[in-house]
Amino acid sequence: MLNRACATAAAASLCVVTTVTAQHPDIDREVERFVPQVTEIRHRIHEHPELGNREIETAALVADHLRELGFDDIRTGIAHTGVVAVLRGGKPGPVIAVRADMDALPVTEETDLPFRSTQRTTYLGQEVGVMHACGHDVHTAVQLGVASILKSLQDDLPGTVVFLFQPAEEGPPPGETGGAALMLEEGVFSEFRPEAVFGLHASAHLDVGKAAYTPGGALAAVDHFRVTIRGRQSHGAAPHLGVDPVVMAAQAISTLQTIRSRNLSPLAPSVVTVGMIRGGTRFNIIPGEVTLEGTVRTYDADVQNTVERRMGEILDGVTKAGGGSFELEYDRITPVTTNDLALTERSAPSLRTALGAEQVSVADPWMAGEDFSFFANEVPGFFYMLGSRAPGTTSGDHHSPTFRADDGAVPVGMRSMAYVLWDYLSDAGAQ
């Protein structure tokens, strides 16, 4: 099976990883056995993506596969559409958890994949495409593959693994709760309290067969802001009779960038991005209000507090000068994703064993965010990046319509995560 797969570019990574000296021949054998089925599952999930808190078909597919494997402890409907499965090994050992996210994004796919998404839905009042533009289809498939492997080796498994299939990692729809925070609120760690939690994320910046991790702070805290700037509507030909919120919004957008450049240390990572501007109904009417929405990314609580405070001060000054007013809604969505240093030191060698030392690197922190952070704030966590770009090809960035994860990432993810989990449990059992 592996030899046949190696003949295809899409599975080139299989050739890479199988050249590594086998340390876990049983795992390697099970990867080979399950990868065709798991890859097909990945295609089904990619072709039928679902937005956060709406992962009904995906959750059903996950639960059905786990039942087919023989899991006898499967819980559905967690945090709306989440699935939790418990695998108790045949040997004594600790409890650990591993997480995969299932939701897609409101993005219209522009790849030429034979299993590309053509799904459409309504999001925030607009008709949009739906796409796995961040690799969550790979994450879910990989975790089902790991569940398949460990279930087949259950008798020799030292400990218990809790598989978390999480909805709404990209955030729940407005007015709803969801994601990792809701799973924890509903007690997902209460009955089976893990001593460590693991996760991975497909990376468009790494070739298939490679992986990267960051000790300590790996991904940024994610904040969301919404600003309403109010003026007074008037005819576009008589601006002196109104108070123009468009001008105030333009000034605010430019001035907000001085927070990063003039109020914070150049050595303190931060991002202030305005991603949405809404206002006006006609070209010759000065509107009564304009709305701005965006995100703030930080790694330090003091920096985070400074950004929020200065945003309010800047908006107050700009709108007072312009004769208007403002309302700022500032929400702290996701904390910093931190890789526990001791757990990272313990887990990184397993990655190198699985993929080869030259295939694994230490990466700089990234300003993207992940609500895996909620799990990693409860217990020590280890989160790594899995190469998903086919060697010699290009991929659009995450959250773009041309994001493209290669099938070869699936067996690499299965193998690497299975090694990480097995080694952790085996080492703990041997102590």
Describe this structure in words.
It is a single chain. The protein has 431 residues and is an alpha+beta fold. It has 2 domains: 2-219 and 336-430, Zn peptidases (Aminopeptidase), CATH 3.40.630; 221-334, 2-Layer Sandwich (Alpha-Beta Plaits), CATH 3.30.70. 36% of the residues lie in helices and 27% in strands. It has 11 helices and 18 strands. The strands form 5 sheets. It has an 8-stranded mixed beta sheet with strand order 1-2-6-3-7-18-8-17, sandwiched between helices. Strand 4 and strand 5 (126-129) form a beta hairpin. Helix 5 (136-152) crosses helix 11. The longest helix is centred in the N-terminal third of the chain and has 23 residues, at 25-47.
Q: Would you tell me the overall average pLDDT?
A: 94
How many strands, what sense, and barrel or not for the largest sheet? 8 strands, mixed
Q: Find the CATH superfamily of the largest domain.
A: Zn peptidases
Task: Bin the helical content.
Answer: 25-40%
CATH class of the largest domain: Alpha Beta
pLDDT below 50 for ≥5 consecutive residues: which ranges?
A: 1-19
CATH-derived architecture of the largest domain: 3-Layer(aba) Sandwich
Distance between the termini: 37 Å
Regarding quaternary structure, how should these chains be classified? single chain
Strand content: 25-35%
Which structural class should the secondary elements be placed in? alpha+beta
Number of E-type strands: 18
Number of domains: 2
How many individual helices?
A: 11
Helix and strand pattern: HHHHEEEEEHEHEEEEEHEEEHEEHEHEH
- From the alpha carbons, calculate the radius of gyration and give it in angstroms: 24 Å
CATH topology of the largest domain: Aminopeptidase
Give the overall silhouette: elongated
- Largest sheet strand order: 1-2-6-3-7-18-8-17
